[in-house]
Amino acid sequence: MPYVLEARNVTKIFGGSGLIHKKETVALENLSMVIKADPASITGIAGESGSGKSTLARLLMGFIHPTEGKVLYQGKELRRLTREEKRTFRKEVQAVFQDPFSVYNPFYKIDHTLYTPLKKFRIAASQDQAQKMIEGALETIGLNPEETLGRFPHQLSGGQRQRVMVARALLLKPRVILADEPVSMIDASLRATILQSLRRLNQEFGISILYISHDLTTIYQISDHIIVLYRGSVAEIGDVAKVIKEPKHPYTQLLVESIPQPDPEKRWAPNPIAFADQGSNAKNRGCKFAGTCPFVIPDLCRITPPPLYRVNRNRAVRCFLYRDAPEIPGAAMGQVLDH
Fold it and tell me: What secondary structure letter does DSSP report for 19?
């Protein structure tokens, strides 16, 4: 059975088209991953700013197209979908974005935001049915309909606006929700509520979720699996608990060490991660992390790009430290977590 969504050997390069002095930026390089509907799971995408997380989300939503490789929905390339297939895709693959205010039209009340998808996809047979569906969705994600409907976006808090967007996605009964930094602009006191809502959609409604964040703490709280990106390439894939508690890639280790500890006497990681230079004119020679890695093997890491090594059943690392393990070729990267 085809995957709901699949990225197959996807590379995305920005810039460089027709302008001699325009630098190319490799946002994603040769990335493969899959999202299944059954069983529904939550996959976290982690990495620093500029690692390619949001570019991946935009590719999976069909907002942009890959420079190389394919993005497939139900086994068919997105750019080749028929009009009716695109309509189904838009219904079954929903997004919750970072800024819970920019997606609203300030001249319309919250009701308009929730009624529009029901009308567009002809989900409700009547106004009364639409009202009941909207109220049920709001209650599911912890909002009181009487305190939410009839208001303008600016009359709600950031957390309420974000939960309304989660309710909007739920109304369409999607198979996948792409959540791109959904709590980064929300007060810390409300983040748990948003995460709880997403987890409930996954567990009770069988919706697979791609949770994108630079925050390893929230990824650990909500996800089943994790994909760690560094400069557009997969550094490590695996079960989220194992990757966070026992990181194998040197970059993942530094990410985990950089999480602030609730102890004023404990110093943060002594070796901060150097910001990745994204202004590369071409795909990098050697390992992209070689310039920062404390375990670099100069004659190997700086010359040859490392493949992805399968270190156990559903765990893979792109690092020559594990070169005795079997390599994972090409698009097979996408099936690492497919067990």
Answer: -
Q: Which residue has the tokens 């791109």?
A: 180
What kind and span of H or E run contains 145? helix 145-148
Q: Which among 121, 151, 57, 42 is positioned nearest to 95, based on CA atoms?
A: 57
- Name residues whose C-beta falls within 8 Å of residue 273's C-beta, 6 or more positions apart in sequence: 48, 251, 254, 255, 258, 292
What is the DSSP code (8-state) at residue 208?
Answer: E
| Model pTM score | 0.88
Residue with tokens 């010359």: 303
Q: Amino acid identity of 6?
A: E
Which residues are within 8 A (CB) of 55 and not within 5 positions of it... i.e. 6 or more apart? 12, 27, 28, 64, 232
| H/E stretch holding 61 | helix 53-61
Q: Count of alpha carbons within 13 Å of 152, Cβ hemisphere only?
A: 5
State the 10-residue block means of pLDDT for the chain, 339 residues long.
Answer: 88 75 83 89 92 93 94 94 94 85 82 91 90 93 92 89 90 93 79 88 93 92 94 94 94 87 59 45 72 91 93 92 90 71
Q: Which residues contact 43 (CB under 8 A, 6 or more apart)?
A: 33, 35, 208, 209, 210, 211, 223, 224, 225, 226, 227, 337
Residue type for position 105:
N
**DSSP 8-state secondary structure symbol assigned to residue 85:** H
**Dist. CA 291–CA 217, nearest whole Å:** 26
Residue in 51, 68, 29, 44 with CA at minimum distance from that of residue 306: 29
CA distances from 230 to 13, 69, 153 (A): 15, 19, 36
3-state secondary structure of 153: helix
